[in-house]
Amino acid sequence: MAPNQALAGPSEDANAAVDRWSAAYGANEPETIAKTYCPTAVLLGTVSPVISEGTQAIINYFTPIKRSGNTNAIEERRTIIINDSAAVVTGFYTFTRMVDGKPVPGPSRFTMLVTKQGNEWCTAHHHSSPHVLPKN
After folding, report:
1. How far apart, in Å, do the first and last CA atoms of the chain sit?
2. 10-130 — its CATH code?
3. Cα–Cα distance between 18 and 131 in angstroms, integer?
């Protein structure tokens, strides 16, 4: 008898890809972050006035965070399965950016189209923007 192997489905795989992105962001290494994206990915970054398309543009976008101490924490998400090799993950996360040595939280929202290319899941499209908090 062969040992039982747990097989992940598209939802688990897509969410694992998003978690890898968050961990890579926290490592503050632009090249590591870029590896979580598909080679032709499109990024609409939280603090960018332009569309970043492709690996080098994504590395360039994340270069300012190198060795910064910035982190990312995903607070809430929803996963929409498109098919066995594509899912949309959307939700809220908080960037904690170090400004003058002090942590400054930046609540944000995101949508990622995560696709399976070969045996690997990567982000094909990522949109991030500041989270509009409810008015008191």
Report:
1. 61
2. 3.10.450.50
3. 18
- What are the pLDDT digits (tens) for 10-33? 999 999 999 999 999 999 999 999
CA 14, 63, 71, 110: dihedral to nearest 10 degrees? -40
Q: Which residues of 106-133 are buried (b: 16+ CB within 10 A; e: fewer)?
A: bebbbbbbbbbeeeebbbbbbbbeebee
Q: Could you tell me which of 68, 45, 67, 70 has the C-alpha nearest to residue 58?
A: 45
| Average pLDDT of the segment spanning 102-115 | 97
pLDDT for position 7 = 55
State residue 133 phi and psi, 5-degree precision: -85, 150
Q: pTM above 0.70? A: yes
How far is 93 from 130, CA to CA, in rounded Å?
10
82 contacts 125 by C-beta, under 8 angstroms: no
